[in-house]
Specification:
Keywords: Oxidoreductase. By secondary structure, this protein is mainly beta. It has helices spanning about 20-25, 75-80, 95-100; strands at about 30-35, 35-40, 45-50, 55, 60-70, 80-85, 115-120, 125, 130-145, 145-160, 165-170, 170-175. The radius of gyration is 17 Å and the shape is globular. The structure holds flavin mononucleotide (FMN).
Length: about 180
């Protein structure tokens, strides 16, 4: 071992095996863009904060997101068969916290303080998102603790000259940090 390597400390999560601790510690080094998935209508709306969003293909335009099977959003996504991915900007940190369930907010409560609109499917879209992708559900693949959700993008919008909210090493960041 040299100055550039270290092993995860089991003291952080003693219930996890060493391999899982090492994986978790290494994944903390992977910077991610912060998005919120939004689904549903009115009081039935819910959603989650996610860094697992990535592009799948351009032709056809598809993306994927991995969603924990034990969470409250996977059921509505499978039922509605439509959702939106909203890529956040630095001033959306409170929205990111709300959709991560901080403060115990659930369902439609997580939408407070945001400016919401719609594109094609009717899924809620954050009006000032850095980018927003309106999707219909193309496939859902259960694997381990998560479901790999594939969305066919039917509409998208962007905010020009804006910056992303990032998540790295357990905290929110922006490009200037
Ligand atoms: C920065 C960040 C990234 C996250 N990424 C994901 C993700 O990609 N997939 C996921 O299932 N949960 C992810 N989560 C956790 C969910 O946001 C969180 O478990 C969920 O909103 C809890 O809501 P629930 O208890 O109603 O299911 C992330 C949380 C944070 C703070």
């Amino acid at each position: 071992m040299n100055a550039h390597t270290s092993v995860a400390s089991p003291a952080l999560a003693p219930e996890l095996p060493d391999a899982a601790l090492a994986f978790r510690a290494a994944m903390r080094k992977l910077a991610g863009a912060v998005s919120v998935l939004t689904v549903g209508v009115g009081d039935g709306r819910t959603g989650l904060t996610a860094t697992s969003v990535t592009s799948l293909s351009v032709e056809p335009p598809t993306l994927l997101i991995t969603i924990n099977r034990s969470g409250s959003s996977i059921g509505p996504v499978l039922q509605e068969r439509a959702f939106a991915i909203n890529v956040l900007r630095p001033h959306h940190q409170a929205i990111a916290d709300q959709f991560a369930g901080k403060g115990g907010l659930k369902g439609a409560e997580r939408y407070q303080g945001g400016d919401w609109t719609r594109l094609e499917t009717g899924a809620p879209v954050l009006a000032d998102a850095l980018a927003a992708f309106d999707c219909v559900l193309e496939d859902a693949i259960e694997r381990h603790s998560h479901v790999i959700v594939i969305g066919r993008v039917v509409a998208s919008r962007i905010t020009e000259s804006a910056q992303p909210l990032l998540y790295w090493a357990g905290g929110y960041r922006s490009l200037a940090d």
